[in-house]
Structure formats: structure tokens, C-alpha cells
Design a protein that fits this description.
The complex is a heterodimer of chains A (about 290) and B (about 425). Chain A has about 290 residues and is mainly α. Chain A is about 75% helix and about 5% strand. Chain B has helices spanning about 5, 15-35, 35-40, 60-75, 100-115, 130-140, 170-180, 195-210, 230-235, 250-260, 275-280, 285-290, 315-325, 335-350, 355-365, 380-385, 410-430; strands spanning about 45-50, 80-85, 85-95, 120, 140-145, 155-160, 185-190, 210-215, 220, 240-245, 265-270, 290-295, 365-370, 375-380, 390, 390-400, 400-410. Chain B has about 425 residues and is an alpha/beta fold. Chain B is globular, with a radius of gyration of 24 Å. Classes of the chains: A mainly alpha (about 290), B alpha/beta (about 425).
Chain lengths: ~290, ~425
């Protein structure tokens, strides 16, 4: 029982940060139609923001996380303006440009911080004993709480605000949205800022838990793609549910069987969903 | 033709006769007062450094290259390597293989055919298969830190420093002597060419010491980023000993953190504990107290023992810390440099820097001056060839936040008693030279 509860706790944490990353990726694709291969590097940039501000400059942890969120959001704006807007009619061009940007970000990280992993001391070493032998560290709890708050806020923003409606309208039919007076440039900027900021905050919050490296985005982007394919490309709800599903399957197989097999099972899950339901669990019609 | 403008750069206060006489005098003075430098600069021998300098495994390449640069500076400042009446300045040519076999092959080709190196040092492991054919074809002398790369087919590959993973038996043997009550162990490793032979070695060492491994070894994917599930599984059987095998530093650190966070109270044993000060920062000094591993800091006074062949270990460590920072010291910081000691000794004995001559001289008499004492060329039973230099190896323990050598233990002595166990576990995991 103890093992089961600890595994559920571990899976909840994994689902949280994966959901943050995957939702950002889906939002960018849903609104702009671009597959952002540099999304893992935005996650890395968030982590290095904390390395610099919290570890090196000794700024308070949450201030560093907030700065990381804004910094990576701004990086998203740069990407939108410099890469994706000029290539708006060329989705393949956007993808290739994002790969180029990925390499630039990795190189900047190497030049600025070196190739070695960075060590970010935890902001707290407090633990919560959920029951006897079942531990959740407060550092991990931060990630879970931040995910619930941020994704809940995003859901309300998309459903209840004028800007959110504009984003959804652009995702469903950009031309019709433009005819209604919605600025495509403005919505693309907004989507890119939010999507990038979500990846950045995931990296910033998990930096003390993962030892950042310039290449840390690689493993994350592979997992994020599996999640958005399983959830249905373009579906925010699908991304969240698929993140939970993937994290639980992966964590349980790792704990009760083998870490290598867990990766195979994760990929098999994606293949099974593609065979049974090619549009993913929540399809692609209900973008953003 | 010299214009009036040009003339102002042409020694305006010195006529041609004075200039020539002064230059000639300076040349003579330089030649007389610095004969070794002038002589050593005449000949250069290039040594290839083909290891991961970036990526996940960089911790076992880059610090070694940094150590080699110190070695080269010291040797060159002393006049170079004396070979058959000549003095050779040593120049390292590095190639970052990123721990990728294809890049290792490209690097080996470049180093041999374009750079003209006479010896290539590698980390080995997953990158060795990429190089094996070109090494055999060119007859180039290579070294690896991982004797599990050795096969009878490649006679020019040596493991002259590390007998990874065989020396891990010394840590287990010492632990069993000091803590006889610890009887239940678990073990994990990344699923690759470094992890598997090391698991086989630890399984043999635990069995020889009467320690039960209470669960199957846990192999995790090298792409793992969240180690909480891995640690949850490991701790589920309430072990006394948590063995981290030969996990890369990028895995050892989060594994230790997870063990700390999930409340592990037993003994940690690991092949390496690179940058352990950082682990202490992320856990606690109390938690890391007593962790056993195999790689000393070279400021350890125990290394001043007369049997240790590594030149000025404490000074080497001080120079390394000065150049790169104390916290940058890692398992391999001294290893490639110690291989260079052996190579230089071999080249001097051979009177040649040609790979075949140096190889023959290095292996002459079946013994060599290993960093930790005189050792034997060994390995036929396990690797099919006696190209691993094996002798004593230190057991290191963290005490008061600092790594300290607790003693040197003999690998050949362990092997004489338990070789059958090692062969059994190597076979079970498909790690014998004729199974790989």
C-alpha cells in the first residue's frame, strides 16, 4: 500500500510538469499551426533563469521563477516576430526555423553556463508525510500547486475573457476571426507568450529537482510530443488528460517493472491511440 | 622599397650592424641558457584525446582533458619526453565524440590521418565499437578507461589506468569488513555499456561478501529525468545498502537526492561520486557521511605513499583546483594524465614514439607502473587478452564532507579467490568478451 501511494504521489508530480509543457506546446500549435521544436529549449531556458537568478545572484526562489516565466514568455514573443510571423504561410518553414532556434538556445546556454549540469539547491528541504512512508517534498508540491493554478487560470482565461475567445476563434478559423476584426498578429503574440511562459515556468520550478543541462530539452520534447499526440493535437483538455495518463503509466511501469520498458509502453500507448483513434483522444477539431 | 613612412618601424635607433650583432648575441644566449626548451621545441609528438567533452558523459571526458593540459605543461616545461636522445614536446589534439560511436569513428579517422597522432586516449564504452575497426586497420595504439572494451581481436587497445568495473570489488570487500551487519543490497544502473559490466561486478562482489541482492538489478533508460519512481522501487524492499553502480554523475546526483528525500537511512556505495560537494549541498552532510566510492581527491595525504607512481599528486590537485576550481575535480581528472605517464615511460624505454614500439615497451615484463603501484598486465580470463593493468585500488569514503582514502585493496587478491563468481555474473549479463 505504501509503495502504491508513493507511486501515485510520484506520478502526480510527473503529470504536473508534463502537463505544463504539453499545454504550452498545444496552445502554440492550436493558434499558430506551428510545431515548435524549440519548446524543450524554452523549458531549458526557464531552468537556466533560475540557475542564474536564484543560484548565482541569490534572488528569492519564487522571484526567480516569476522572472523566468516572463523571460521565456518574451523569448516566445521574439520567436513569433522573428521566425513564425514571416513564415506564417509555410508551416514546414516554421518547424525548421524552430529547430534552428533550438540550436541557438542550446549554444547560448553552453556559452553562458558551460556543458556541465548545473546544481540548483532546493529552496526548501521540507517534506510532507502523506501517510507513514509516503513522502511528498515541498519542492515537488510547488510544481503541483503551480500547475493547478496556472492551468486553471488558463482555462478561465480562454473560456471567460475576450482575449481568450479571440485565441479560440483564431484557432478554429483564422480567416473568419480576422473578418470579425480580431488581429491575427496580436493573438499569435499572446499564444506564443503564454505557451512559451508555461514551458519556462515548468523549467524554472523543476530546476532544483533535475540538475539543468543545455541539452535537457531533448527528453522533454519527445515526451511532450507523445502526450499531445495521445491527447489529440490542438486539444488543451486532451493534453492535460494525456499528460496524466502518460505520467501514471510511465511511473507505474517504472516502479513495478522496469524503466526501459516504461518508455516502450509509453510509445506503445501512443501507437495504440493512433491506430484506434487517429485524431487522438480528444481529436483536433476542438482546438484551443 | 622602403618609404619614409615605413622607416619609422625599422629600428630607428639601431643601425644594421648593431641590429645583426645584437640579434646574434641574443640567439646564442638563448641557446646556451635554455637548452632544453630550445631542444624540446624541435620535436613534437601529438596525442589524440577522443572522449566526450560535451553531453551527459562529459564528466568523464572534459575533466580528464583538463588534467592532461596540466600534465603537458609540466612535462613540456621540464624539457619534454626523452625518447632515444631526442626530447619531444607533447601536444594534445582533442576531439569531442559526445559519447557517440559515429562521432568517435570520425574523430579517430581525423586524429590518425589528418593530425598524425601517435597515441589516442578514449573513455571507451559505447564509443569503442565505432573506433574498433579503424584501430585494428591502422595499428594505432589506443587506451580506454573501460577494460570491458578489450577483446583479443584488438591487440593495440590497452586499459592501463582504470580496471573498470573490476576495482568496484574493493569497495564492497572493504564495506563488508567494516559493516558486517549490512546484508541486504539493491542496485541500479543506466542500461548501457558502462552500467551492465559494473552491475555484473557488484553482483559478484556482493555474493563473495555474503550480501544478498534482494531485488533484480534495476536498469533505467539513460533518458530518465525523474528518478523518484526509480528510487521508490529501489527502497521498496527496505535495503541496508543502496548501490548506484557506475551511474553517470547526472544520475548519481538525483538518485542521491531522491534517496535523501525518500528517507533512506542505510549505506550508499557507488563507483563514482563526482562533484560530491554539490550532492552534499542538495542533501546534507549527515546523509552523505560514510558514502563509499572508488575515486580519491588527489590532495589526500595517503597518495604520498612511496608505492604510488603518480607524480606529485597533491601538487597536481592544487594546480587543478587553481585552474578550474576545486569543485570541478572529478573521477577522471587524473586518469588520462596517469595514462600519459605510462605512455611516456613506454616511449622512453622504446626509444620511439611509434605505436607498435611503445606498446611493446609498455607491456614488457608483464608489469607496469600503475598510478597506485606496480601492477600486472592481466585480463585473459575476462577479456580474452592481458591488456588491462591491474593492481591495488583505493577505497574512498566521505567523512566530514570530504573524500578520504580508507585504504588500498588488491584486485588480484580478490580475483584469486572469487574469479568464478565474476565470470558467472559476466556471462549471465552477456558481458564476456565473446558475448558482446
Amino acid at each position: 500500500m505504501e509503495l502504491l501511494l508513493q507511486t501515485i504521489t510520484n506520478a502526480t508530480y510527473a503529470a504536473s510538469y508534463m502537463a505544463l509543457i504539453a499545454v504550452g506546446l498545444v496552445l502554440i500549435f492550436g493558434v499558430m499551426g506551428v510545431i515548435n521544436f524549440a519548446h524543450g529549449e524554452l523549458y531549458m531556458a526557464g531552468a537556466y533563469s533560475v540557475v542564474y537568478l536564484y543560484t548565482d545572484l541569490k534572488m528569492p526562489f519564487f522571484l526567480a521563477v516569476a522572472a523566468g516565466l516572463i523571460f521565456v514568455g518574451l523569448l516566445g514573443l521574439v520567436m513569433e516576430r522573428a521566425l513564425f510571423r514571416p513564415l506564417r504561410d509555410n508551416p514546414l518553414g516554421g518547424l525548421i526555423a524552430s529547430i534552428g532556434f533550438l540550436l541557438i538556445l542550446q549554444t547560448v546556454a553552453v556559452l553562458g553556463f558551460g556543458v556541465r549540469m548545473e546544481h540548483v539547491p532546493p529552496s526548501t528541504q521540507e517534506k510532507i508525510f502523506l501517510t507513514e512512508g509516503v513522502v511528498l517534498t515541498v519542492q515537488r508540491l510547488y510544481v503541483i500547486v503551480a500547475t493547478v493554478v496556472l492551468l486553471g487560470g488558463l482555462w478561465l482565461f480562454l473560456r471567460k475573457s475576450k482575449f481568450g475567445w479571440a485565441l479560440r476563434a483564431c484557432a478554429q478559423d483564422p480567416e473568419a476571426a480576422a473578418l470579425q476584426g480580431i488581429s491575427l498578429n496580436h493573438t499569435a503574440r499572446l499564444a506564443m507568450f503564454i505557451g512559451a511562459a508555461l514551458a519556462g515556468v515548468a523549467g524554472a520550478l523543476t530546476a532544483p529537482l533535475v540538475s539543468p543541462t543545455p541539452h535537457m530539452g531533448h527528453a522533454v520534447i519527445v515526451t511532450a510530443f507523445i502526450i499531445i499526440i495521445v491527447g489529440g493535437i490542438g486539444s488543451l483538455e486532451g493534453a492535460v488528460i494525456a499528460a496524466v495518463l502518460y505520467a501514471f503509466v510511465h511511473t507505474f511501469v517504472t516502479t513495478f517493472y522496469d524503466g526501459v520498458i516504461a518508455n516502450i509502453v509509453g510509445l506503445s500507448l501512443m501507437l495504440a491511440v493512433l491506430v484506434v483513434r487517429p485524431t487522438g483522444l480528444f481529436g483536433a477539431k476542438d482546438r484551443a | 622599397m622602403t618609404t619614409s613612412d615605413d622607416s619609422k618601424f625599422a629600428f630607428p635607433k639601431m643601425d644594421r650592424r648593431e641590429f645583426l650583432s645584437t640579434t646574434a648575441a641574443m640567439t646564442v644566449v638563448a641557446g646556451v641558457s635554455m637548452p632544453q626548451l630550445a631542444f624540446g621545441a624541435d620535436k613534437v609528438v601529438k596525442i589524440g584525446f577522443l572522449a566526450p567533452l560535451t553531453g551527459d558523459v562529459a564528466a568523464w571526458g572534459k575533466p580528464g582533458y583538463d588534467g592532461c593540459l596540466i600534465w603537458a605543461d609540466w612535462v613540456n616545461a621540464a624539457g619534454g619526453v626523452k625518447v632515444g636522445g631526442d626530447a619531444y614536446k607533447v601536444e594534445f589534439v582533442a576531439y569531442d565524440n559526445e559519447y557517440d560511436p559515429a562521432k568517435a569513428r570520425a574523430g579517430a579517422t581525423k586524429l590518425i590521418k589528418e593530425d598524425g597522432v601517435k597515441f589516442v586516449m578514449m573513455l571507451g564504452g559505447d564509443t569503442w565499437p565505432g573506433v574498433e575497426k579503424i584501430a585494428a586497420k591502422e595499428g594505432m595504439l589506443f587506451s580506454t578507461l573501460l577494460p570491458s572494451d578489450l577483446t583479443p581481436e584488438t591487440k593495440t587497445l590497452l586499459a592501463p589506468c582504470e580496471v573498470h568495473p573490476i576495482y568496484n570489488v574493493t569497495g564492497v570487500e572493504w564495506m563488508a569488513e567494516q559493516f558486517p551487519d549490512l546484508k541486504k543490497a539493491v542496485i541500479c544502473a543506466q542500461d548501457d555499456a558502462l552500467g551492465k559490466p559494473s552491475v555484473a561486478t557488484y553482483l559478484a562482489a556482493f555474493e563473495a561478501a555474503g550480501i544478498d541482492v534482494v531485488d533484480d538489478p534495476l536498469f533505467f533508460d539513460p533518458a530518465t529525468t525523474d528518478f523518484a519512481p526509480v528510487m521508490t522501487k529501489l527502497l521498496a524492499s527496505k535495503p541496508d545498502i543502496l548501490c548506484l553502480d557506475t551511474c553517470y554523475a547526472d544520475y548519481v546526483h538525483p538518485l542521491c537526492e531522491q534517496a535523501f528525500q525518500q528517507g533512506f537511512k542505510g549505506k550508499i556505495i557507488s563507483c563514482t561520486m563526482d562533484f560530491y560537494q554539490k550532492v552534499i549541498e542538495k542533501t546534507s552532510q549527515e546523509f552523505m557521511e560514510g558514502v563509499i566510492f572508488q575515486f580519491p581527491d588527489f590532495d589526500d595525504p595517503a597518495l604520498n605513499d612511496a608505492k604510488v607512481n603518480f607524480q606529485k599528486p597533491n601538487e597536481f590537485y592544487a594546480e587543478y583546483a587553481k585552474r578550474y576550481g576545486e569543485s570541478e575535480w572529478g573521477a577522471v581528472s587524473w586518469e588520462y594524465a596517469s595514462i600519459m605517464d605510462l605512455w611516456a615511460d613506454g616511449a622512453s624505454k622504446a626509444g620511439s614514439v611509434e605505436p607498435g614500439d611503445v606498446l611493446e615497451a609498455m607491456k614488457a615484463g608483464g608489469k607496469g607502473k600503475h598510478a597506485f603501484g606496480t601492477a600486472d598486465w592481466w585480463g585473459t580470463e575476462l577479456f580474452g587478452i592481458d591488456n588491462a593493468l591491474v593492481g591495488d585500488w583505493p577505497v574512498v569514503v566521505i567523512e566530514g564532507g570530504k573524500a578520504k582514502i580508507k585504504g588500498f585493496k588488491s584486485i588480484p587478491a580478490w580475483w584469486a579467490k572469487h574469479s568464478d563468481l565474476m565470470v558467472k555474473h559476466f556471462k549471465a549479463l552477456g558481458q564476456m568478451y565473446n558475448q558482446r
